[in-house]
Each structure stands twice: as structure tokens, then as C-alpha cells.
Amino acid sequence: MTAPSRLQHAAGVLLKLLVATYLLAIVAAIVVYKAAFIDALLSDPFFATYGLAVSTYLVSRFVLSLPYRAPKDAGLEPRVAIIMPAFNEQDAIARSLRSLLALDYPADKLEIVAVDDGSTDATLDELRTVEAEANGRVHVIAFAENQGKRAAMAAGIRATDAEIVAFVDSDSVVEPDALRKLVQAFADERVGAVCGHADVLNVHATWLTKMQAVRYYVAFRVCKAAESVFGAVTCCSGCFSAYRRVAIMPRLEWWEHQRFLGRPSTFGDDRSLTNCVLRHWRVVYDAEAVSHTIVPDNFRQFMKQQTRWKRSWTRESVLVARFMWRKHPVAALAVYVGMVLPLLAPVSALRALAFHPMVAGHGAPFLYLVGIYSMALVYSLYYALRRRDYGPLWLFGVAFVFFYLAFLIWQTYYAILTARSSSWGTRPSTAGQPA
Amino acid sequence: MGDAAVDGGAAGMKGFGLVMLPLSVLPFVAVRDDVIREHDAYLIARNSRAPLGAAPGPALPGRAPAPPLDSRIRPVISLGRGANITLGTRDGSVLIELTRQATTEGRRVLADANGDGAADVTIGAGLAGVKIVACQTSVAALAGSGSGRRADGGTTVHVPASALGAAPRFVVTRGDASLATCGGRWFAHRPAVALPGGEA
């Protein structure tokens, strides 16, 4: 190492130490603040309890993620089928499929099934092109008309008898070593599903994708890691995840035709399939099995995606609540608290930002906003700390929390009220469900 | 794609990230005083203020006559805006207390002793000290007044009960504590407080 690079390395270490100290100071300040007002639990029980619960919940995610370790290499090489459903993805599908062909995994143990869900663009042509290049390693299933993502995924599962079934979204690419790493978790016979890590592929596209980059990192590396410690990951992302075949087959028919309040469930298939497995198996997260996915780069698409996610969260919360109590008590408590807090968040925000200053005539909202800011900093500085190089992206994490406060917390009620909706709200589709 | 590809970027952006790190402390610094005030208000709400060195008594009910001076009950009456009075102190004075926040903001307590709707005595409490103004009463009547600083940064003022009449009315204003004016007719809808021996 040359002298300048040694200096640069030392500066980087110093900077990370500074960020770590700052992060710990903020967490300590949050704890001291909450302790200083602890008696408010008696004088203002509803909101004081809510505030304490939110802080405890968020900080607990970080604390619980500390003992998380990615599954060890057990030398497993089971037969794997990767299923990639696609609908009108002509621009991204070939790249995604080729990333699967480049996987570092024995070709005789890897089957790739691409399902074209009745695309109206050149997606099928792209699939056929890659199929021709792949010397029989890619099997393409083509639907004559759009039947929906679940139908495509289910057809892929039925087309193979591989022991492990993995899913990769058609707008995601996976690292060459990702699959080998992902399947190692199945060395534990209690594990029914594994969720890989997803980073944002189009990070630098817009301010919105930058914000999502920080959000994705924390959602996976903190939240899923915290759940994984108890083998209770509640949503294996569709970007990249794998399931034990015997864990999903008993519920496949039910899952494919799942209905909610009399309507077909046409989105949230990843969360739903995870729930099917989580009921009887452990579901874990592998931080080292990395995929990269394209996220919405404009406000309209992003809001529609978030509405779908919140609707599926509503639907699946009803289901997961029925069996989660049988899991580890800490994991169960986190899930139940995590169901209640988003429902109360708009009430608390309205009280702090509108009622107090305008109606009650006191209590400027600054303290509330700084409380939000402190939580945003915890998330964002953690991101800054964990990345290899210190960069400015963490600032977008702070921005995202305020973006969340401005737009997304209010979406919860709308999503609940429209939870029956089957519409993706993106583009026309016979099944209303692009793959 | 590794971390470097994600976190990389123009040197200018990296510099921006570095500059923003220390600047991110500023919102915490900006609300520091608000947090202290909020905590003061919280403590006051939790423990209603009492004369220094004495346990607080229950609040005086609406228009009930005040207890005698030797009563073991020491009623505390909130005047609002961070000020309250305690009746029945041992030396016969009325104890007026202002919280740290009220003191910081330099609030004034105006007392109408004779019921004519104009202030007879004003007490301004600020960080620079206490200013007691005799408006329609003699300075001699206020001779026994005294003031002090509470441990939490608030202010205590003793005013002879005789200077306040039998049933004074109080108003707490946001005004400058150093004002020597007595104007304004803000007492119209204020309830009278019965001092020991008097009746509202």
C-alpha cells in the first residue's frame, strides 16, 4: 500500500469512527429523551405509549440485527429451478435472463424457467433469443394471453421437479455467486425459504431511486436481518428468493387462487407465498446472496407500487396474525406491533403537526419533526457506516423519511379501504397483474 | 455491482456528504431550548409547584373562600402561561411563581386588587431580574415584597397580601418583563381569587 493510499485508508477509518460515534450518540439521546418523559405514560398514555413503542420498535430492529450472520457455506449444491415470470419486459428481460446463465452453479443442477405471461411487446422474442443461446439450459413457457403473475409462477413451479425453487423478478439481475450462497441456508432442515438481498440497480437515475437505495438497504440489512435471527422473515422479496419445494407444494393451489374479501389476490405474491411457508417452517435472510433490481424512478409509479405493497400488507397481516403467535415471542411481538404502529402514525402526525399548533394553540411541531429527523439519521448514518466508501447517499435516506411522512403514512388508510382492489394501477392487463 | 459503484460519484458530491455530516447536528441544536422548556412544563405538570421547602396542597376549588393563614392546606392556583400563586404562606404574603419558560419569555403578572378593572400591581419576571410596579397602590404597601430564583431557573416573588386586597384578579401577559406600564383592561372576565380572610 502506497503512502497516499494508506492516508486515504486512515481517513476513511477515522470518518467511519466519527459516523459510528455520532450514530451511538443519537441513539443514546433518543433513549435519554424517552426516559426523561417516562411518566408521560400515565399522564398521556395513548400518545406517550405510541411514541415509546415507535422508538423501541425502530431501535430494536438495529439491536436485533446485530447478532445476525449470513448462513455459512455448507457445501450444498441441490437441484435448483429458477423461475422468472415476465410481462411486457422487453427492455430488461434478456439482461436478467443472461445474469442467470452466468451464475456460478453446476449447469446440470440448474434449471431456468422463463414464463411469458401473454406479453404484448417483444418479451417473448427476447426470451426465445436467449433460449436459443443457452444450449437447452433455459426453458420458456408462453401463455397465449395474460393470466397473471401467480399463474405464471405456479406454471413455472409445476414445470419442474427441482428440490429448490427460486424466483427472480424479470427486472432484477443477480450476482454470479448469489445462488450458491442462497441455497446454503437449506442445510438447516427447518428452513423452508430464504430471502436474498436486493440492492437498487438504477441508483443514480433520480432523487427517488437514491432515496429507495437507502431504504432498500436498511429494509433488508436491518429489518429482514432482525427477523431472520428468529427464522421469521415475513416477506421474501420477489427480487430474489428461494423456497424448498416441499414447503410450498401443499399450499400452491390455495396460493395461486388466493382470494381476499371475495376478490382474487393479484399482487403481493411474494409476501403471500412467504406466509404459506412461514406457518410451518423457518424463513431466513441471506445478506450475501445479492441481487440488483430496478425501482420506480418517477413519483407516480412509485406511489402505485407503494399502494400495492400496502394493500398486500393489509391482506397478509390478517393472515399472518393468525399464526405468528406460535413463533418466537420476540418475533411475534415485533410483527403485531408492526401491524398497529402504521395505523396510528397518521393520528400522531396530525396531532403534532396540525392539532397542537392550530387548535390547541401550543406545542410547535418542531420537536415532533426533530424526533422524526433523529430516526431518519439513525437509519441513514447506519447506511453510511455500512457501505464500503463514505458517500453522500445517506442524505437521501434522511430525505426519504420526510417523504414518507409527507406522502406514505397517509396511504395506509387508503390501502386498507381499497384492500379488495385487484388492480395494479400500472397498465392494462387481462388478469390485472403484470408479472 | 459492488459498494463502490453505488457509493461512488463525483468528488463534489462526496465533499457535499462530508460537509453535511457536521451540519446535520444543527436541528438538534435548534430545538435544545424547546426540549428544556418542554421538560420543565412536563415536570410542572407532573409535580404541581409548591412553596419552596413545603409540600403542595390541593388546588383551591372554584369560588370557595380561602383557608385561614394557619391552615395546613396550601392551595396552589394556576394563573396560566407558566405562572401560579400559592396562598397562605407563613408570613402572610402571596407567593407568585413563574416557571423557567415564563421567566425566559419575560412574562408579567398583573393584579387588579380593587376590582376596578385596571392593574394595581404588576410583577415582571425576566432573566435580568424581577420588576414590581405599584400602579394604583402605594410603594410602601409593597415594601415587604421579595423575590428569588427557583432551582430550575424559574422565579419566585413574595407580595404582601395586603397589597393585593381581599379578592384580586390576575392576568399573565406575554409582555416585556421590564415594562413599567399598567394599562389595559384585561380583567373583565377573570375570576377573583379569595385571599386569606377575604372572599371572592
Q: How is this structure best described in words?
A:
- The complex is a heterodimer of chains A (435) and B (200).
- With 435 residues, chain A is an alpha/beta fold.
- Chain A has helices at residues 3-36, 40-43, 45-65, 93-101, 123-133, 149-158, 178-183, 207-228, 245-256, 269-278, 299-323, 329-360, 366-386, 394-408, 411-417, and strands at residues 80-86, 110-116, 138-142, 164-168, 172-174, 191-200, 240-244, 259-260, 263-264, 282-293.
- In chain A, the strands form 2 sheets. Chain A has an 8-stranded mixed sheet with strand order 3-2-1-4-7-6-10-5, with helices on both faces.
- Mean pLDDT of chain A is 90; it is low at 426-435.
- With 200 residues, chain B is α+β, with helices and mostly antiparallel strands.
- Chain B starts with a helix and ends in a 27-residue tail after the last strand.
- In chain B, the strands form 2 sheets. In chain B, strands 1-2-3-8-7 form a 5-stranded antiparallel sheet. Chain B has a 4-stranded antiparallel sheet with strand order 6-5-4-9.
- Chain B has 5 helices and 9 strands.
- The radius of gyration of chain B is 23 Å and the shape is elongated.
- The chains are: A alpha/beta (435), B alpha+beta (200).
- Chain A binds chain B through residues 15, 18-19, 22, 29, 33, 36-37, 39-40, 43, 199-201, 203-204, 213, 292, 364, 366-367, 369-370, 373-374, 377, 384, 387-395, 398, and chain B through 1-4, 6-9, 13-14, 16-18, 20-21, 24, 27-28, 30-31, 34-35, 38-39, 42, 45-46.
What percentage of residues of chain B falls in helices of 4 or more residues?
10-25%
Regions with little confidence, pLDDT below 50 for 5+ residues of chain A: 426-435
Structural class of chain A: alpha/beta
Most extensive interface between two protein chains, with residue counts: A-B, 37 and 27 residues
Helix content of chain A: 40-55%
Estimate what percentage of residues of chain B fall within beta strands: 15-25%
Question: What order do the SSEs of chain A take from the amino end to the carboxyl end, as H and E?
Answer: HHHEHEHEHEEHEHEHEEHEHHHHH
Q: Cα distance, first to last residue of chain B? A: 80 Å
Distance between the termini of chain A: 49 Å
Find the count of extended strands of chain A (DSSP E, 2+ residues): 10
Name the average pLDDT of chain B: 73
| Mean model confidence by pLDDT of chain A | 90
